TrEMBL record:
It comes from Cellvibrio polysaccharolyticus. GO terms for molecular function: S-adenosylmethionine-dependent methyltransferase activity. This is Ribosomal RNA large subunit methyltransferase M. It catalyses: cytidine(2498) in 23S rRNA + S-adenosyl-L-methionine = 2'-O-methylcytidine(2498) in 23S rRNA + S-adenosyl-L-homocysteine + H(+). Its EC number is 2.1.1.186. Residues 182-274 form the Ribosomal RNA methyltransferase FtsJ domain. NCBIfam families: PRK11760.1 (NF008734). The gene is rlmM.
């Protein structure tokens, strides 16, 4: 298997390709990527015959910013006969490890979605045939992916369950809460799903915690914090949603988020201010190095050009500033499904925390 299939947001193929090339090179794997603008996927082909299978086990999926989901396989299966697509695809799967599930995907584009019906229809006989051949079993560390790229072309491959997205195509199915004041609420919910393991939510997103929301109006992110039972200082010169204010858990402060300082440290800082990435990163760094917060979710609006380079620059700056302050922290970025021309950052202080000093 020398072929990695990487799903990404349409329009971010170059960033996805630059990132996988960098990460693969750092891990000692060389190859090249194939991209098409707005295709919503990237193909990375390794020089080593089994490079993709090794890479997908070695590179931590969580480290990848622009890849939504991925799988390793032998490459495109072309010239599928429309009367029998099953036989050639089963032949390809022959060399795969048995998988615990079959996931049928499409590129996240309008053209891709049109192939969804074909994938669904095909999944029924494909599943049966895979089960008969013991390629689909009850439990496995692997899952099998199938993507049709046209009626006659498809990619099949595998990904480790523990090192891939928990969501089909990396797209979470989150329901818009009817009482939330803005759709932006889904960004913070998705960020928590991505950055905070489910079993840690009760400790890290706990009742009565204190939070600051910079650029809070009308209150979609504050709504999520309140839903977890937190008390929130919402900083914005714009108006906050009335029903949310009636919860009694929100203190609306009319101020500039870049100059506001908390009276006491808080558990969470969240920031959805649209500004220059370097300015936002500098502000996050100040909050953490001053011990004003323990954990942060923030948005970085990407420039028109050099988008991958800009994120890496902010990441390196934050890492350098944490190191020189003697703070051990995890710093991660992800272009979430609900992010458009932006990425979401997450920083968590591990030690030593100056929190509360
Ligand atoms: C994308 S909106 C935030 C949406 C919010 N997270 C939600 O879920 O409803 C950005 C907000 O940042 C605010 N903003 C922009 N610059 C700001 C600043 N320097 N300080 C505080 N708020 C700012 C704007 O007034 C706007 O309400």
């Amino acid at each position: 298997m020398n072929h990695l299939f990487l799903h990404c947001r349409p329009g971010f193929e170059k960033e996805c390709a630059a990132e996988i090339t960098d990460l693969a090179n750092d891990a000692g794997f060389f190859g090249y990527s194939k991209t098409r603008d707005n295709a919503a996927f990237v193909e990375f082909i390794t020089h080593e015959p089994d490079g993709a299978l090794q890479l997908i086990q070695q590179l931590p999926f969580r480290q990848m910013i622009f890849t939504r989901q991925w799988f390793a396989g032998p490459g495109r299966v072309t010239d599928l006969p429309v009367t029998d697509r099953l036989t050639p695809l089963l032949a390809v799967v022959e060399s795969f490890p048995p998988a615990g599930a079959l996931i049928v995907e499409t590129p996240d584009t309008n053209d891709g979605k049109e192939l969804g019906a074909l994938g669904k229809k095909f999944a029924v006989p494909f599943t049966k045939a895979l089960q008969t051949r013991k390629k689909l079993i009850n439990r496995s560390a692997w899952q099998l992916h199938l993507v049709f790229l046209s009626g006659t072309e498809a990619c099949v491959g595998v990904s480790p369950v523990a090192n891939s997205s928990q969501w089909v195509m990396g797209i979470p199915r989150l329901r818009m809460p009817s009482s939330a004041p803005s759709r932006a609420t889904l960004k913070l919910e998705e960020a928590w799903h991505h950055f905070v393991p489910a079993q840690e939510w009760d400790d890290r997103l706990a009742l009565s915690m204190k939070a600051v929301d910079l650029g809070a109006a009308p209150g979609g992110w504050t709504w999520q914090l309140v839903k977890r039972g937190m008390f929130v200082d919402a900083i914005d010169n714009g108006p906050m949603d009335k029903a949310l204010m009636d919860s009694g858990q929100v203190n609306h402060i009319l101020a500039d988020g870049f100059v506001y300082e908390p009276k006491k440290p808080v558990d969470w800082l969240v920031c959805d201010i649209v500004d220059k990435p370097a300015r936002v990163a500098g502000m996050i760094s100040r909050w953490v190095t001053k011990g004003w917060c323990r954990e942060v979710v923030f948005n970085l609006k990407l420039p028109m050009k050099q988008r991958y380079a800009e994120v890496k620059k902010c990441e390196e700056r934050l890492m350098a500033e944490m190191e020189s302050a003697g703070i051990r922290a995890t710093i991660n970025f992800k272009q979430l499904y609900h992010d458009r021309e932006e990425v979401t950052g997450h920083l968590r202080v591990l030690s030593p925390s100056r929190f509360g000093q």
